[in-house]
Specification:
340 residues, alpha+beta, ten-stranded mixed sheet, three-stranded antiparallel sheet, 13 helices, globular
Length: 340
């Protein structure tokens, strides 16, 4: 497998090369170790090991000075002008990864209720489960029934031919997830017990990793007063290697407080903070009822580009290129409308 993984920078349309975090370790885990020592591989992707790796990498004081704060911030491209906390407080990897930003200023959102916005600063792929050629994605990224839960036939039926989008966060990213739509929270539950890596090489090597990892499933009815009008939407927040927790933090106003408990019946507002991934890489999957949304044309074009070296393209034998999107930026809109 190629050591290079590229994505498209949305603003410029240019390919960028990703610096994959702990790539040698991940490649070793998901190639020789996975095949030759399954029990050890299972242990390394367990909750206990994931928590331990997270502590080693992000919490121990002995590790933090070795990383070099200024060098680390420059390498990750962290824009300090966006951060609410001063530089002196961002003195550990965990504090950097869990940083808060002035999202209401630096991540503007279109004033259009018919739009769907990105839930995270992330790299995005999209598709439809209704398409014949999407079978390789259905069987590789996730199994719908496993993803939503074997005991949730109602939701599986609603999303059987769903449009979907996968948002892969990298360790350097702002790790708060925001709501992609407005509507009423109708169901929320947790599933899974694994902590697979979200590195592209690991995703290509492992079968349906998003269906196995620990995840929080939130169902949002947008066909309500004040809603986005795009049907039922499933937001699945998938934790990964070195992610110990997913902290709920829904806030209705500007900023991050006060936090409102997420329960069925709660009216959710698009663009507001919903949760915080603990440090590491992680993924958000969105499912939309069929024929309710249209993805933005530039995202669809980027995904099929053949001038980009993507590990997903290599693994699936067809063009499959991620676009880097900003949280709260428009990624789709209500079907029948127009999206630039």
């Amino acid at each position: 497998m190629t050591a290079c993984h590229q994505y498209i920078e949305r603003a410029s349309g240019l390919p960028r090369t990703e610096q994959l975090f702990a790539d040698r370790l991940v490649r070793w885990m998901y190639q020789p170790l996975r095949e030759q020592a399954p029990p050890l591989f299972k242990a390394l992707t367990s909750a206990r090991m994931s928590h331990w790796l997270g502590t080693i990498n992000f919490d121990l004081d002995a590790v933090s000075p070795l990383l070099g704060q200024e060098r680390f911030l420059r390498r990750c491209g962290v824009d300090l002008s966006e951060c609410l906390d001063p530089l002196e407080r961002l003195n550990t990897p965990r504090r950097i990864f869990e940083r808060k930003i002035r999202y209401w200023q630096c991540r503007p959102m279109a004033n259009d209720q018919a739009t769907v916005v990105a839930p995270a600063d992330s790299r995005m792929l999209m598709g439809s489960l209704a398409e014949q050629d999407s079978l390789y994605l259905k069987e590789k990224f996730f199994s719908l029934r496993e993803l939503l839960g074997d005991d949730k036939p109602r939701w599986c039926e609603r999303f059987a031919a769903a449009d979907y989008a996968v948002f892969r966060l990298t360790p350097d990213k702002y790790h708060y997830n925001h709501l992609p739509v407005s509507g009423e929270l109708v169901d929320q539950y947790e599933l899974g017990d694994r902590y697979h890596a979200c590195n592209p090489g690991a995703v290509v090597a492992e079968v349906t990793p998003y269906s196995k990892n620990r995840r929080l499933v939130t169902l949002i009815d947008t066909d309500v007063e004040g809603g986005s009008g795009v049907g039922l939407v499933a937001m699945i927040e998938v934790v990964a290697l070195m992610i110990g927790d997913l902290e709920p933090c829904y806030c209705e106003g500007e900023g991050y407080t006060p936090v409102v408990a997420q329960r069925p019946g709660l009216q959710l507002r698009k663009g507001q903070p919903k949760s915080l991934f603990r440090p590491g890489s992680s993924t958000v999957v969105l499912l939309f009822e069929p024929r309710r949304i249209e993805f933005c044309a530039d995202l669809l074009r980027n995904q099929q580009r053949v001038d980009v070296s993507s590990r997903f393209t290599l693994g699936f034998q067809k063009p499959l290129v991620e676009t880097e999107v900003e949280v709260r930026s428009t990624i789709a809109r209500r079907r029948g409308g127009y999206c630039l």
